[in-house]
Amino acid sequence: MNLRTLDWLKCRLAGWVATRAAWAGDPLPDRVAPHTGQCLTCQVRLAQVRLLTRTLQSIKDEVYPAPSGLVGDVIARLEEPVPAPVPVGRLGTLSRRNLAPALMAATAAAAVVLIARRRAAA
Amino acid sequence: MSNQPPTGGVQATDERVLIAAAQGGDTQAFAELAVRHQHEVFTLALRLVANRELAAEVAQESLIKAWRALPRFRGEAAFATWLHRITVNTAWTLRHRARRQQHEPIDAAYELADRDERRQPERVAEIGELRSRLRVALAKLPASLRSVVVMKDVYGWSHAEVADALGISVTAAKVRLHRAHRRLQEDLKQEVA
Fold first, then answer.
1. Right CATH number for B1-109 from 2.60.40.1180, 1.10.1740.10, 3.40.50.1000, 1.10.540.10?
2. How confident is the model over B14-72, as pLDDT tens digits?
3. How far apart are CA A24 and CA B120, in angstroms?
4. One-character DSSP codes across B36-92
């Protein structure tokens, strides 16, 4: 590995650590500060991330008006009874009922395959 | 959520009175609370699902869930914070409907970015190209990545709060956030260059 490749790797690693810190809003870690202080590529990357984080934070202030009638619809639905949950026992019976034909079909299919293989072998 | 603005003074007291009345079954008091918070609930829902129709559905469901859960609200967090958590939860539950409705993802994204500007043309200049492009880029992200960015970067929730709201581990939340950041950076490379 030559020195140029090593520098490139160092830059990539420092850039990665620095941008992670920038995304999290943390201060620049000491171990990458000397490199980013003198590397224009890293500084550009950091500036981009900081711009993005600031813009994302500024989006919070925007409020989209709710559709008219939203609260009216909600209030109308408040009187509705809460749908009762399906009892667990019933769910179990239902699944067992569905499971039985499936198991029978699978067993029959397996038997057909086994018989076919034995015949082919014979 | 760590960055909710504190509701102070008369309004907070007033809100506490409304909450107490609503907890006692007063639908009028709840209607007043819903009127006050409907826009922020809808805005959060819209950011999470990137589709106006679905966001309206999410907002409606969230307010109904809030009404049903109100007896359990102890006031440990601000009412708005509590409502936000319910909204995130509802949006996450209804995300499969978003998949069905996202057969035109680009249109949905531009709808999100442009409608507000069409409504308020004088704001176009203020908002700026990057903000507009960022909203489009956010809308293009898959729901699982978008929700993490919205909660963490826009609303300032902690990793633990995001993980808790989505029912995933903190590590998974961090991984999703990292992926989302990479995609956003990639998508907005030209705008931020």
1. 1.10.1740.10
2. 889 999 999 999 999 999 999 999 999 999 999 999 889 999 999 999 999 999 999 99
3. 33
4. HHHHHHHHHHHHHH--HHHHHHHHHHHHHHHHHHGGG--SSS-HHHHHHHHHHHHHH
Q: CA-to-CA distance for B23 and B19, rounded, in angstroms?
A: 6
The ipTM is: 0.72
Token representation of residue A31: 């171990």
Entry pTM:
0.71
Instruction: Find the length of chain B.
Output: 193
In whole angstroms, what separates CA B188 from the centre of its chain? 22
Who's near B136: CB < 8 A, 6+ residues apart?
B109, B110, B112, B113
Instruction: Please name the residues between 24 and 53 in chain A that touch chain B, using a CB distance below 8 Å.
Output: 44, 48-49, 51-53
Cross-chain CB nearest to B131 (options A58, A63, A79): A58
CB atoms within 10 A of CB B76: 7
- pLDDT reading at A15 higher than 50: yes
CA distance A18 to chain B (A): 13
B164-185 pLDDT, tens per residue? 988 899 999 999 999 999 999 8
CATH number of the B113-193 domain? 1.10.10.10
